Amino acid sequence: MRWLSRVLALVLAAFALAGAAVAQDLQPVPALSARVIDQTATLKPEQRAALEAKLAAFEADAGPQIVVLIVANTAPEDIAAYAWRVADQWKIGRREVGDGVLVVVSIGDRRVRIEVARALEGAIPDLAARQIIDRAMRPAFREGDYAGGLDAALDQLIARIRGENLPAPAAHSGAQEGTQFEDWIVLLLFGVPVMATVLSRMLGRKLGLPLAAVIAGGVAWFVTASVLIALVAAVAALVLGFVFSVASALRHIGG
Predict the structure, then answer these.
(1) Is 121 in the same domain as 86?
(2) pTM score of the predicted model
(3) Residues 150, 156, 159, 164: is their CA dihedral positive or negative?
(4) Which of 54, 100, 203, 255 could in theory staple to 207 by disulfide, Cβ–Cβ 3.0 to 4.6 A?
(5) Is residue 218 domain-resident?
(6) Positive or negative, the Cα torsion across 180, 184, 185, 186?
């Protein structure tokens, strides 16, 4: 029995090593840097820009997000497994709605895959996705017209999605932007001085003020994803924190 258990353990270890080796050979998922990502230079720059503009306009108007990815091949995975892995990592679409669509075109394999998020499964079922691929994309692809095939397929996908009456994208009005600006002013003039004063009393001015600046910069970067705004917020927090800290000390001495 011990001999048998050792053999089984070796077999399982061999399978695990083989699986790990295969996993290491999987193609890395590219960064989600645009709505049309062409790793093969199949599309001309103006063609890619036109498709990008179409998808950007649709996303701004309706809300759902469509992304096109063109790759040389998906080996060692088939296109279905590769597309699922990309979609799972990218998380296309609005999180609260689940309205993303991923179109993967594998040039070397001559395969196409359309992955649909949960909110659009009714609008674009598997049968409809196959029909779009077979009737709009493949005929154009055979003629070398990848831009035309993608454009026709995107038109059909957009038409189907529009019929779902999904929630409209959140509007960003001037009043909302003004409100956000006011929120930042309140944070800098009231929140930062209080935080700087508390941290200075707890850790001393040399540690408390820089820590308050780092926290303010981190919050600004998290909210805006802008390094420049984060640096401005950190410097402003450091200056304001120093001023209010000194003022507080002077009031304490005067009292």
Answers:
(1) yes
(2) 0.60
(3) negative
(4) 203
(5) yes
(6) positive
CA pair distance 218, 227, nearest whole angstrom: 9
Amino acid, res. 90: W
Burial (CB count within 10 angstroms: exposed 0-12, middle 13-18, buried 19+), residue 2: exposed
Q: Based on the domain organization, do 43 and 157 belong to the same domain? A: yes
Query: Would you put residue 92 in left (φ > 0), alpha (ψ -120 to 50) or beta?
Result: beta
Q: How many CA atoms lie within 13 A of 80 on its CB side?
A: 3
Domain span at residue 235?
A: 174-254
pLDDT tens string 177-223: 454 555 556 566 566 666 666 776 677 767 776 877 788 777 766 65
The token duo for 96 is 């609260």
Rounded CA gap, 54 and 158, in Å?
10
d(CA 51, CA 67): 10
